[in-house]
Amino acid sequence: MPTRTPSGTAPRTPSSLPSLIPSSFQGLPPVVWTIFAGTIVNRLGYLVTPFLVFFLAARGVTGAETSYVLGALGAGNLLGPAVGGILADRIGRRPTMLIGLIGASAAQGALFLAPGVWTMAAAALLISAAGSTVSPAAYALLADAVDSERRQRAYALFGWGVNIGTAVAGVLGGYLAAHGYWLLFAVDAGSMLLYALVVAVRLPEPKRRTTEERSRGNAEGPGPESAKKDGIGYGVVLRDRLALLLLPLFGVQLFVYSLTEVALPLAVHDSGLSPAVYGAMAAVNAILVVAVQPFATARLARFPQLAVQSAGSTLIAVGVALTGLADGIVGYTVSVVVWSLGELVVAGIAAGVVANLAPAHARGRYQGAFSWTWGVARFAALTLGVATYTTLGPSALWWTALVAGTATAAATLTLTARVKARTAHELAA
């Protein structure tokens, strides 16, 4: 019997291009494909943040003043997911996405027109805070649209859309920047508004659960009594013992992965290679992930997902550590290929596991907690990772990545039985 979507219709893929859809993504409902398409549009316009340092320099902002703006940008990524998770459960998925997209679009214009450093920092804070409220709501909407067995594939498709859009944006951004930074801001803001239009027109708001339905708890998770005490905050997540074990493990794994954005360019620079080499490495990663991920998702879906997550996280840790052995283009290419394979292996698994832990009425907050974990991991890579590299030396960072990545991968694997029990409970319900 085909699985039913919340609206009661059988899931289907877009009928116009069935032969072009990778088998791993066939059968997903229209809501998932709408978010996928909107995500590509949005990420095609992901232009301002990668070129922000160059824009600030063109405006005469350098040195310590640049760090104020970048610090505000990072702080917003810690604030936005927490707020987005609460709003997704409180006012709905679609309104939260619209608030985030329209707010971030307006902040893009404010940053471009900002007259001084502090107004630039305020606008940067709003860009990242508003923009990062979107992910928890989108993740929760994906969880609403599919059952637990399909969620990993839905999140993998979402991540594939991010990678497709980002890969194209990297090329587009360089071209637009050469013709004027205002084009970066215009396209970035425009892509957000276009995604907002897609959300407003094409995405339905899922049916809200009744109080009686909300009182149904999960094994090892929030029970009937705690469900009544959930309110609108994150108490529902903090009372979930299994979530409190998994989120820090995922956080460390995401920290190791985030070092690919931070430590790799430092290593390439210290090897005496040009920035073009780092650009080539980014292209290798993008091509691998975009080309291989759909097929990897199909092949790996038959295996226990936490086992796949652990294997992929180990590959990422080994690949990052191999950066320390590289001293030329070939060595860096090998390291990038290894951690890129790990990246496409783990695609969508962590978000899917977190979604399966969440009670239906708290999916936004669970995804907010997961997105916040992502933000903390990236912020730690930008601060602690760079500090370790520059003060203790590159070897200390590579060994830290290897040990932390493999240890948390092994620890994640030990929780397989408990996660399986929670998922089975939801399927039975």
Description:
The chain is an all-alpha fold. The protein is built from 19 helices and no strands. The longest helix is centred in the middle third of the chain and has 30 residues, at 241-270. It is globular. It starts with 29 loop residues before the first helix and ends with a helix. The model is unreliable at 1-19 and 210-227 (pLDDT under 50).
Q: How much strand content do the residues show?
A: under 5%
Mean pLDDT: 83
Fraction of residues in helix: over 70%
Gap between N and C termini, in Å? Answer: 17 Å
Largest sheet: none
Q: What is the rounded Rg?
A: 21 Å
Return residue spans where pLDDT drops below 50 for at least 5 consecutive residues: 1-19, 210-227
Structural class: mainly alpha
Number of helices: 19
Shape: globular
Q: What's the number of extended β-strand segments?
A: 0
> What series of H and E elements makes up the topology?
HHHHHHHHHHHHHHHHHHH
Set down the secondary structure blueprint:
Blueprint: H1 30-44, H2 52-58, H3 64-90, H4 93-113, H5 117-131, H6 134-145, H7 151-178, H8 181-202, H9 211-214, H10 224-228, H11 235-238, H12 241-270, H13 275-300, H14 305-322, H15 329-345, H16 349-357, H17 363-392, H18 394-413, H19 416-428
Helix pairs in contact: 1-7, 1-8, 3-4, 3-5, 3-6, 3-17, 4-5, 4-6, 4-8, 6-17, 7-8, 7-13, 7-16, 12-14, 12-17, 12-18, 13-15, 14-15, 14-18, 16-17, 17-18
Provide tags for this entry.
single chain; 429 residues; mainly alpha; 19 helices; 0% strand; disordered N terminus
